[in-house]
Known about the structure:
- It is a single chain.
- The protein is mostly helical.
- It contains five helices and no strands.
- α1 packs antiparallel against α4.
- The model has no long low-confidence stretch (mean pLDDT 79).
Amino acid sequence: MRQGFYSKKKSELKKLFYLQKINQLSQYSTDSAIIAWRNQLGENGLEIHLQYFGVSCNASALLQSVQFAEAVYKRTPPPKKNFTPTYQDFFNKKRCQVSS
Length: 100
């Protein structure tokens, strides 16, 4: 059952990354069919897919990047509990202790 949770989250992340790329490319397209699809309201337009992930179609490129990052963060599975620290983790912990 837990495996299904991770595969669903992974699938959503993949969709989200493709959607971000499609959104960026469609903003600079001069093809009238792509522009019409981007501006189309309803189930078949790009806006409904963006709204599903919490991204505003009319936002600036910077704000959309932030919204995409937030959507990725919300859909990223939590780290595994049996995490084994690496040498780099140990080094970072020591560096934080020295600087405080």
